[in-house]
Amino acid sequence: DQQVKQNSPSLSVQEGRISILNCDYTNSMFDYFLWYKKYPAEGPTFLISISSIKDKNEDGRFTVFLNKSAKHLSLHIVPSQPGDSAVYFCAAGNTGANSKLTFGKGITLSVRP
Amino acid sequence: KAGVTQTPRYLIKTRGQQVTLSCSPISGHRSVSWYQQTPGQGLQFLFEYFSETQRNKGNFPGRFSGRQFSNSRSEMNVSTLELGDSALYLCASSRAGISSPLHFGNGTRLTVT
């Protein structure tokens, strides 16, 4: 059972425009959500996180929105840059003891110059 | 500050053999997690160690095992290798588990022939 779903495998946007990456989850016990970015031949790097007590968190060009009732979160990148081209993973977990992070399958973002 | 170091970067093994992968976490990080990444499957959680104790385990067969040493370094072992074990194995460290962002190494690419 896939508890974190990234249904679109890829997204292509023009440089300077907004990129919106979506993620859905099924486990209502998740209370902590993160986005990671991964370049080829490198490990994922942490981008931004959000706790379930918030509905928005912003860090520079990156904003994550959380809709708990819909069990949906999204990552907005504005403006998109060619260097943003990478695989983006959504992850979720419960911050209680013995918890683990569950990752989605990833979305490949291509930003066209 | 040195990042998470994984060795070796690449491995080629034959079916039936066993393999040991190594991970050195960021200094001060006591939690080490292991993930398997295969095309189309995203990051699948293997296990997490905290202060030398396995705190959580994913849905992998018993052929996959790990341990953590007193200096927080961790090893992962896969016995009786199968072709399907070919993957990128990622190690991540954090201060306290998922409530603080994971920092990933660049992974070990294992190829089983």
Short description:
The complex is a heterodimer of chains A (113) and B (113). Chain A has 113 residues and is mainly β.
Question: What is the topology?
Answer:
The complex is a heterodimer of chains A (113) and B (113).
Chain A: E1 4-5, E2 10-14, E3 19-25, E4 32-38, E5 45-51, E6 56-59, E7 62-67, E8 72-77, E9 86-93, E10 102-103, E11 107-112
Parallel strand pairs in A: 2-11
Antiparallel strand pairs in A: 1-3, 3-8, 4-5, 4-9, 6-7, 7-8, 9-10, 9-11
Chain B: E1 5-7, E2 10-13, E3 19-24, E4 31-38, E5 42-50, E6 53-57, E7 64-68, E8 74-78, E9 87-94, E10 103-104, E11 108-112
Parallel strand pairs in B: 2-11
Antiparallel strand pairs in B: 1-3, 3-8, 4-5, 4-9, 5-6, 7-8, 9-10, 9-11
Which features characterize this protein?
heterodimer, A: globular, B: mainly beta, seven-stranded mixed beta sheet, globular
The major beta sheet of chain A can be summarized as: 6 strands, mixed
Supply the helix-strand structural class of chain B: mainly beta
Number of helices of chain B: 0
Q: Strand percentage of chain B, roughly?
A: over 45%
Q: Name the biggest interface.
A: A-B, 25 and 25 residues
Order of helices and strands of chain B: EEEEEEEEEEE
Helix proportion of chain A: under 10%
What portion of the residues of chain A fall into strands of 2 or more residues?
over 45%
Oligomer: heterodimer
By DSSP, the count of extended strands of chain A is 11
Helix content of chain B: under 10%
Extract low-pLDDT stretches of chain B.
none
For the largest beta-sheet of chain B, the strand count, sense and barrel status come to: 7 strands, mixed
Shape label of chain B:
globular
How far the N terminus sits from the C terminus of chain A, by CA atoms, comes to 38 Å
**Overall strand count of chain B:** 11
Q: How do the SSEs of chain A run, as a string of H and E?
A: EEEEEEEEEEE
Number of helices of chain A: 0
Mean pLDDT of chain A: 94
